[in-house]
Amino acid sequence: MVTRYDTLRSFAFVLALLVVGCVAATALAQPGDTIAQQTSPWRNAHFVLYAYGAVWVGLVLYVWRLASLARRLDREVRKLERAVEKPSRKDDEP
Amino acid sequence: MRERSSLLWAFGTILVASGFVWSLYLVFISTGLDRVLGFSQKIFYFHVPCAWITYLAFVVSGFGSVAYLLRRTSAWDHLAYASLEVGTVFTTLVLVTGPLWARSTWGAYWVWDARLTTTLVLWLIEIAYLLLRAFLEEPGKAARYSAVLGLLGLIDIPIIHYSVVLWRGMHPDPVVMSRKGFGSGLPGDFLMALIVSLATFTVLYVMLVAVRFRLETVRERVRFLRQQALAR
User: Fold this and answer.
1) B36 to chain A: nearest residue by CA?
2) Structural domain of B42
């Protein structure tokens, strides 16, 4: 079962990764090797593929998350409805 | 009623799927290469719609937050939450596609430019909102506090949009919503590809928010049933 602590830890990890990534990325600047106008127009095609790939992966992951949340809530609703119905059936018995 | 709902979902799914196919055709086959940026300019057709959805999501969430604070009806809170969560996904995509484009154009994944920094601030506000919702146990309190936080985030939207004008940095000036008019900075075929992509992403956003809204309604029912079960 996923606890709130796990959620907080996941968020903290993603945040730390992002901050470290931003700081590291500023140090990775290599002006001149991929500046436009000085290179072939097709040279940076892999960045386009990564960007489109990231969008697709991100959207698929989110839709998958919604689907698993829907299944979990559906199971809980059925379980709770059975639990709520049971005592009332017992009350009906002579 | 259920049949009509299923038909609507099917129609929406077909619309989104065909929209994506059409926009990919327009982006990679129909439109030419940008004279200056070359092939890397193609990221524009997904990066800008993701940013547009970020703006839209916050406006809808802000509207829902104000309506909740005035009316205290849970449906408005569900709308605000659903919209902001979906918006967070698209803001994350903006922060991923943007640096990839930046690396190919500026030579660096990240610079502390005004537009990039304010977008990062917006993403952090979204994460704070989601954490607030996850950790506040009382639903009423969670709804109230997060509504206020969502409105604070709404203030960041015009700052992000006008940051390129107010503080000259590396990020290009707006070409879509420019001062001369919508899309005036773009050639016709580029504008067409962008409009198709924008429309597809908007329909996708509406569908995702509708699904998320429904899940929040179900979650409210779960809370109600739990209280009933405990009372017995």
Assistant:
1) A37
2) 16-231
Asked whether residue B8 is domain-assigned, the answer is: no
Measured between CA atoms, how close is B147 to chain A, in angstroms? 21
**ipTM of the assembly?**
0.88
The stretch B20-40 carries a mean pLDDT of 86
Question: Is the torsion defined by CA of B206, B212, B215, B217 positive or negative?
Answer: negative
Q: Which helix (H) or strand (E) holds B178?
A: strand B177-178
The pTM (predicted TM-score) of the whole model is 0.83
Q: Does B78 reside within a domain?
A: yes
> Chain A, 49-88: which have a CB under 8 Å from a chain B CB?
50-52, 54-55, 58-59, 62-63, 66, 69-70, 73-74, 76-77, 80-81, 83-84, 87
Is residue B112 within 8 Å of residue A26, measured between CB atoms? Answer: yes
B1 occurs within a structural domain: no
Give the distance from CA A10 to its chain's centroid.
10
Q: Give the three-state DSSP class for A45.
A: helix
CB within 8 Å: A80 and B120: no
Per-residue pLDDT of chain A (94 residues; tens, 9 = 90+): 555 666 666 667 666 766 666 666 655 555 444 445 555 666 778 888 899 999 999 999 999 999 999 999 999 999 999 988 876 554 444 4
Among B36, B95, B107, select the one facing A32 at the smallest CB separation: B107
Give the closest of B34, B37, B107 to A30, CB-based: B107
State the CB neighbour count (10 A cutoff) for residue B134. Answer: 12
| Helix, strand, coil percentages, rounded to 5, for chain A | 75, 0, 25
Q: Number of folded domains in chain B?
A: 1
Whole-number Å distance between alpha carbons of B105 and B87: 26
| Cβ <8 Å between A48 and B89 | no
- Which residues of chain B make contact with A36, given a CB cutoff of 8 A? 36-38, 40, 104-105
Q: Is residue B2 included in any domain, yes or no?
A: no
Chain-chain contact of A43 with B38 (C-beta, under 8 angstroms) = yes
